[in-house]
Amino acid sequence: MLAAGPARRQYHLPRKGVPPRWTRGTYSGYSPPTVMAQFSDDVLWHQPGANQFSGDHHGIGGVGALLGGMMDASAGSFELVVAGPAMVNGEAVAVPVRFTGNRADATMDMAGIDLLTVRDGKIVEVRLFSEDGHGEDLFWGLK
After folding, report:
1. pLDDT tens digits for range 53-112
2. How far, in Å, are 94, 105, 112 from residue 84 at the CA level?
3. Deepest in the core among 79, 101, 114, 143, taking most CB within 10 A?
4. Alpha-carbon torsion, ordered 18, 53, 59, 129, to 10 deg
5. What is the spatial distance between Cα 77 and Cα 103, in angstroms, rounded to a whole number?
């Protein structure tokens, strides 16, 4: 689903049962089923900002459509890389990330935090924070 990229350092969570693909390395090269298997069937994804993808996305179908739309909008270049060790507090997992993408007329490269709620080894909720919300909105296309 995501474009292949250079090798990245691997980080491991200190807590058993948290989805490994989100918390170490990169999503580059993983198939959509592998990525989607990390989510609960009734996952709730909160996409911030004022762009075409902003808002709440419900369930595997909604999150799959969101991620597929991002891949389409970025001509397949969207990449999420875990940038440091995950921090766990009960069911909450904060993951520092770096995400990039390229289109013919725009480039995005910024840091962020993905705040996950994890239950029974599955991601049930996602909240995203980026260092440049306006820049991200411009990349994805304003509503």
Report:
1. 999 999 999 999 999 899 999 998 998 888 988 899 999 999 999 999 999 899 999 999
2. 10, 30, 11
3. 101
4. 30
5. 8
